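Protocol step 4 of 5: obtain the predicted structure for the target chain.
Materials: sequence only (see below). No template structures provided, no constraints applied. The aim of this step is simply to have a reference model before the mutagenesis design in step 5. Sequence pasted as it appears in the construct record:
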Amino acid sequence: MASKRHSSRSQTFSARAESETLPALSSYLLSLIAIKQSNLCVSADVHTTSALLRLAEEIGDSICLLKTHADIVDDFSDRTIKGLQDIAKRKYFLIFEDRKFGDIGS
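Step 4 output (structure tokens):
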């Protein structure tokens, strides 16, 4: 028996972003994907604020989402957060903090 495809699978990202039932964040991400013509997400595994901000600045125009790991940034502070927010607003990408609580061994 063939499975039926969900109707959103045949819609463009722009059309999906306009759905009234979609949460605002999901709609925004779909809009970014459509505008940038990319769904690229980059995991920023760097250890300093300057390296993280430099990476965000360099790749921000090409990505939709930057996945950060605050736990490994040695000098993480309000400056880090503010810097990332400023770059993300200017270059139009989302920030996703990937906390590692579930995979900590006992």
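Step 4 remarks: Strands lie at 41-44, 65-68, 94-97. The mean pLDDT is 90.
Proceed to step 5.
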